[in-house]
């Protein structure tokens, strides 16, 4: 039998930007992946971490997963998370997604992981709010201004059209520039607040995407109003242990990767037994697939912790490749 010629499709960061994905496209692609997970049509393994250098303020995340349906793709994403990259004019998160055929292991595509990570993270936050926040949510409080933060706010606002958006981050120049960018892109006023409390106190939706070097309970439980939807997903815990005590429902993206490992916003809560298999309401995919209920009343205060799913990367990467093919974008690399 003659040897087959094999090619890899490649989308770099410039190609991904040229796709001009709409908010609705991003959300739909990621939601389809979550639904497949909820129906049991996927395989996912907990992320692992590579700590490359004791002198570096960061690490690599390695995410792995595969779809049986509705798309036949396996994937591995390696993404760096280096807090001090802004000092070099670089994003904190940079990496690549490798997609493969799950039936024979043939590499099929390489996609820029930086834009993809930002978009899919924002989409998971927005999808969580779609199913778990009060429909009449009018005020968003967002902590953090890194790349994923932009897509959190943009995609949330595409669903809720907030009356008030507050943002905060540690560095004034960072939060001010973030608020200005959002104001220009969303066509509405975005307020940069001077501290955590003025950002999140009484907000209908609270997102905590901080960049702490060590755990510190900066977000106080007493600031969360009854009926709010709270999404903490910083690498280091920034919330009080009492936060889970006020929640009617605790939801995660994947319990397998949330229950172990050194990092995560609710790591102390898992260690203390406050978040466990018994106290967990559902994985997000189960709610999207209709197998478990989302919000059932306006007075429920609900928390959603997402660590980041390889499946969301694969689903969005697959959609990007399909759109790129229609638009004639990207490159083909000879593999064998």
From TrEMBL:
Gene Ontology cellular-component terms listed: cytoplasm
Any coiled-coil regions, as ranges: none
Domain of life: Bacteria
Family: Belongs to the ornithine cyclodeaminase/mu-crystallin family.
Annotated protein name in UniProt: Ornithine cyclodeaminase
Gene designation: ocd
């Amino acid at each position: 039998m003659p040897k087959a010629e094999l090619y890899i499709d490649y989308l770099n960061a410039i190609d991904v930007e040229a796709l001009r994905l709409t908010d609705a496209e991003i959300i739909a692609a990621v939601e389809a992946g979550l639904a497949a997970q909820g129906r049991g049509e996927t395989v996912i393994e907990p992320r692992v971490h590579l700590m490359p250098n004791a002198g570096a303020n960061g690490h690599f995340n390695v995410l792995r997963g595969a779809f049986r349906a509705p798309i036949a793709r396996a994937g591995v994403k390696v993404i760096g998370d280096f807090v001090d990259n802004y000092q070099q004019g670089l994003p904190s998160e940079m990496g690549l997604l490798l997609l493969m055929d799950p039936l024979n292991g043939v590499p099929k595509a390489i996609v820029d992981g930086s834009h993809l990570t930002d978009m899919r993270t924002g989409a998971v936050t927005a999808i969580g709010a779609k199913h778990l926040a009060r429909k009449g949510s009018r005020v968003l409080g967002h902590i953090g201004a890194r790349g994923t933060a932009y897509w959190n706010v943009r995609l949330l606002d595409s669903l809720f059209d907030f009356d008030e958006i507050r943002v905060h981050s540690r560095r004034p120049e960072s939060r001010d520039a973030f608020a200005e960018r959002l104001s220009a892109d969303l066509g509405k006023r975005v307020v940069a607040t001077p501290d955590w409390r003025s950002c999140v106190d009484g907000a209908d939706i609270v997102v905590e995407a901080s960049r702490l070097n060590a755990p510190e309970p900066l977000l106080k439980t007493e600031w969360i109003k009854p009926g709010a939807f709270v999404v903490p997903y910083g690498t280091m815990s920034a919330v009080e242990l009492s936060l889970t005590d006020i929640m009617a429902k605790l939801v995660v993206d994947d319990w397998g990767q949330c229950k172990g490992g050194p990092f995560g916003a609710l790591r102390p809560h898992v260690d203390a037994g406050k978040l466990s298999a018994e106290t967990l309401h559902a994985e997000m995919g189960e709610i999207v697939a209709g197998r478990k209920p989302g919000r059932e009343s306006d007075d429920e205060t609900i928390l959603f912790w997402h660590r980041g799913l390889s499946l969301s990367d694969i689903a969005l990467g697959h959609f990007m490749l399909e759109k790129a093919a229609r638009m004639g974008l990207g490159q083909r690399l000879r593999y064998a």
